[in-house]
Each structure stands twice: as structure tokens, then as C-alpha cells.
Write the C-alpha cells for this entry.
Amino acid sequence: MKKISLLGATGSIGTSTLDVIENNPEVFSLVSFSFYKNMDLARRIIQKFQPVFVACGDVEQAAELATEFPNTSFRAGVDGLVEAAIHPEVDVVLTAVTGSIGFRPTIEAIDHGKEICLANKETLVMAGQWVMQKAKEKQVSILPVDSEHSAIFQCLQGQDKAGLRKLIITASGGSFREKKREELANVTVKEALIHPNWSMGRKITIDSSTMVNKGLEVIEAHWLFDVDYDDIEVVLHKESIVHSMVTFEDGAMLAQLGPSDMREPILYALSYPKRMKMVGEKHFSLPEIGTLHFETLDEERFPMLALAFKVGKLGGSFPTVYNAANEIAANAFLEGRIHYLDIESYITKAVESHEEIEDLQLEDIVKIDEATRTLVSSWILEKERICKR
Amino acid sequence: MKKISLLGATGSIGTSTLDVIENNPEVFSLVSFSFYKNMDLARRIIQKFQPVFVACGDVEQAAELATEFPNTSFRAGVDGLVEAAIHPEVDVVLTAVTGSIGFRPTIEAIDHGKEICLANKETLVMAGQWVMQKAKEKQVSILPVDSEHSAIFQCLQGQDKAGLRKLIITASGGSFREKKREELANVTVKEALIHPNWSMGRKITIDSSTMVNKGLEVIEAHWLFDVDYDDIEVVLHKESIVHSMVTFEDGAMLAQLGPSDMREPILYALSYPKRMKMVGEKHFSLPEIGTLHFETLDEERFPMLALAFKVGKLGGSFPTVYNAANEIAANAFLEGRIHYLDIESYITKAVESHEEIEDLQLEDIVKIDEATRTLVSSWILEKERICKR
């Protein structure tokens, strides 16, 4: 029995993970989980899975649920997240929270020797160097849950790492892939949230359209697979059937394909190195799909991807700044406070104004993350103030 | 240094293998080889690679070359093939001869503990049960060289065999894939020899067009990977970029892709489990290729594929008969002696008239192979006799 802590249980990856756990009750059990706002779903999860611990978004939720479920412990905030992750009964932590909030519980879970199934790419983007180092020291596996990274991980099994040439990450192109740059100025939140292939959370859907998500994936892949940025490519593949690919020195390419169903990489990460039967599998037939398309990605159309490679190569805290600026800007767009193309402007401005400090430590990363959020938030407020006059 | 015996050195796979050996002189050396007719090329191979032993097509060739190359031993016929394969200096035998002639040297090489790189699919079709049993007893690896089987083999590395669901072999459709059955009656040898994607030997190009080649591959895959026929599928994929695929119980699919270059699976088999750099690699870019197509294969259009599944499931000597009848019929077509669709008729007739013997032994297989050849040859002669009247 694999005992799971699920951080971000009420989101898209979270509910897919619950589905996988529910369908395999003899193999997986839910020991703890976290949620942020969705109390109704949190209640149903507690009723169904009877976890011993739940991390809540705030103290009022924790108090309310504690009266309803006397057999479960509740705690709020980041401390709750950490406690959910490092609970002594937990074997594996699946980090499905969005954004840099996933950083501290992931680090602490590694410190406590918990296996990590990583769906929270921001943790590696923020602090990949420290996270991978710590995982190595603690001999903890970090298994990818992102479909692209799971695809690469699946393709690399049993292969000669020395003969690896390139990682090729596929990109659907996101909501606005058919639009030119000049058409992007006045797009709406509603338009941005219509992803052509995947049903995902709001923030990641915005990140897909700006290609920041792919940028974060490139940086994540760099750390997960220890591959140079020059050996990572992004290819436009509109069908999202090929989840990613690798090439080798002999010219061979391996690819992982499948339906757009996050339960597959989740199940693979949880059952690894075994393969378990998917219950309620989505129908998938290549002859029925018929055609797969591949195109080069226009870097001028998607400048955030080129910027991700740039901050990745600069290293240090530059990816931290890129990610933090994006979190603030993407959320401001979702709140209707800034225009779509402002997301790019704020990220670029934050990266360009960032000065690297000497002898960077993990503690500095957390401070730089916070400072960037404060800075970008202040820029947005300032612009709102000026424009309201 | 891996010391190689190359059976069928002057054919398509043979010359590609020589290219791989020549490009990696610090890793591979050619100890022995066989050829059938091409004396000029045989001479050049001896000059370049200085093998210790050469198996010739006939005794005249052997005598002639012996005078020219005093440092090399020569011998003719099947005994020569066997001697080339089991030469004491040989580590690995790459069997690139076409047809059932590859059977005896492969069996004897396994008996002598030589590693097998198998490009001669007929050996497993004829006698898969015995060959795999013997390889297991002798702890000899049989590594696939056929691009489809190499693809599957590459996809299965590091994977949970218990979680394997299906092998999906891709088929280009061959020379006549755009033709309907009623258009096949009067096609010529010249038309049949124009393969859309691969430059191969004459017989395998015919076999591709009749889909017998894919049928042989299905049977070969059954033996190589120990997979039920019901778990093997064939999918039409006109570009020949995806060389084959596998699916797992969790719904994931892995595929191996690459240019139409037999040197890749050859190099992989010879360097396995390592990956070596391909010298003079063919350019390959998915965005440049742009589009990949997949279709179901029409069994009525290609009845030889359904027949292959049928003889495979019947087992015993039925696949032997299917293969032997095809070798005689395909060669008769190449010689202009029968019509294209007669190939199918003779194979079907041979299979339908075959009666399985009880307690089948390996010796019986060789006899049934010969008897089928004699029978189908006699049918062709008889028809020629009648039609000449």
C-alpha cells in the first residue's frame, strides 16, 4: 500500500489523482491532502478517503471542518501544507498545488525522505539547483507528473544516458495559437481560458497561451533530466497526442503518446516502475486520430519561451524572478486588472531589472521570489493608480 | 572490440552493416562474412576489412578468391555460411541473408553461444519455437535488426513487461498501396520494385507490396517479444517515420521514430545497450516532415496479412509453409514466371493443403520447408507447361 499526501487536491491534477487513488484502493491510500478554497469538494474528499490530516486555506475552514470530522486533524496555511507533506504515515507526496506555494512543502518532504511526484513545476524553476541537490543527498526520487516530463521520463527508461542527444518538448500552442501577435492586444480572459486540447486550471491555461508554461517546463526539464538548455527543443504539435520526445546519438527518437488525460502520467508516477491498468481509460486510436502535425515554434510570436531559455541559461535566481513575475502578472490578467500582453511586459521588465546577488543561497531565493512579487504588484498598482486619474 | 560475422554482406542490410563497422573501427571488426553472387563487392569487402573467413555462393568463387587473397579462408554453400557464423573468433552474428537459408547458420551460431543480431526474419517464422528455446538454453541474446522490431525493442527497454498491452507494427503499405485489388492483376515486376520509402532488396520489396513481409514481421514479433497474436496490431503509416509502437495497460504508448535508414537499428543492435554516435547521419526533423498519417489496414485489400495471423495462431509448421510458399512464389514473380496475384494464390493454396504432423520436431520443420518449396515449384512448372501448349 502506497500512502499518499496530495497537495492541491481540489484542482485539476488533484481531482485526477483522487480518481486514480479511488480506482486502486488496494494499492493507494490518501493519508493527507491540502485544499485552498473549495470546501464542498474538501468535505466530499474527507468523507470518501478518510484522511488523517487536511491542510486548509485558512483557519476558519480548519475550525469548521474540525467540528464536522473529529477523526481528521486540520491546520491552515503553509504550515498546514508542510505538515500534510511530512506526516509520518506518508510515503509519497504528490505536489499538485499551483505556483511557488509548492516550494516549502516539497523541500521539507524531501528533507523527511518522502518520495516526490512533482506536478508543481514552479518548485524546480525557483530553486532547481537546491531541490535536486537535496533529493540526491536524501536519496529521494523526484518523479515527474507533468505530461511532457512524464513522457520524457518514460522514454528514458532503460536507455543509455550517455547516448542521449536532445529532449524535444511538444507544445499545443495554447488558446491563441491561431492568432498573430498584433491580434493579442485586446483578447479577453474568457478567450484565454479556452484551451484547445487540455482541460486544466485557470493559471496554467493562461501560462499555456503565453508559452510561459512551456518555458517553465524547459527549466523543469533541465533540472529533472540534467540536460543542457542547448539540448532542449520545443516543437509545436497541435494535437497534444505526442506528449514529448527524446533523441539519441544514433539518430533514434523515442516518443510517448496518449490521450489528453492527466491520469496516465499520475498513475505512472505513483505505480513506477510498474505499469498499472487504467480504470475508465479514455479511448485512444492513432488511425482514428489519423494525422499528427509538427511545426517549428515561432520565437518572435512567443517571446516568453526565448526568455525562459535566457533566464535558464543565466541560472541563479533569474528563473525565480521569471516565475514570480509571471504568477503576479498572470493572476492580474485573470482578475481583469491588466491587458494580456502586459503579462509579457511585466515578466520582461522584472527579468531585465533583476541584479544577481553574489553567493546565492536557498534563503535568498525565497526572498527574491517575494521581492519580485512585491515589485511587480507595485508596478501594476501604480499603473492602475495613474490610469484611474 | 566486438568481432562480427556478417551473413549476407553484399545485400542492402549487409552493406549498411559494413558502413556501420567501417565508421567505428575502434569498436567493431569484421571477422567473417558471406556473399552469394556479387564477386566485385566481395573483393572490395575483403580488401577493406581483411576478414579471416568468407563464405561464398559456390565453389568456383571460393577457389578464385582463394588465389587472390591468401590470408583469408574461403568455403562455399550452406556449410560455408555455418562456418562463417560459428568461427571461434566471432562474438556476434548479424544474419542479413534473405529467406530460409539463414536458418541453419543461425541455429548453429546459437548452439555455439554467439550473440545474434537478427535481420533474417524467416528463421523465426520457420522455427520460432525452437530458436527461442535454444537461445534461452544457451543464454544467447537475439537482438532485432528489422526496423519495426528494433523500434519495439527500444520502446520496451526499462519497461514493466507485465504491464505491456499491445505491439503496434507500422506498415508503409508497399509499392501498390494506392492501388485497389482489381488493379493488381497485371502489375509488372518493375512497378512492384519501386518502394515508396525504403531502398531494400528485391524480394523484401515484393514482400512489402503483398504485405507478406508485414505478416512475417508479425510472426517474428510474436516470438521475439513473447506476445500473443491478439495483442499485435498492424497500422498503415505511409511516411515510415514511426517504425513501430507499444502500448501499456495504463494507456501510454511509446513509439520509436527516425529516418528510413537501416543503419540505425543495425548500430543499436551492435552497440546495445549503449547508444553510439551515427556517422554520416541522415537529416531528420519532425517539423520539416510536418505531418504523420495513420490508417487502419484493410484486411480484404491485403489478405496475406490476415493469413499470417491465421498461420501464426495455428502455429507448428504452418508459418513454415507460409514462408516457404512465399519465397518460391515471390521469386517466380520476380523471374516473370507468374502474375503478381498468383503469389497470394500459391501461398494460400500451400497453407490450405498443409496437414500438420503429430509431435513436430525441428528436423520436420526443415523437411516441411523443403517439401513446400518443391510442391509450389511443381505447381508453377505445371501451370507453365499447360499454358505453353
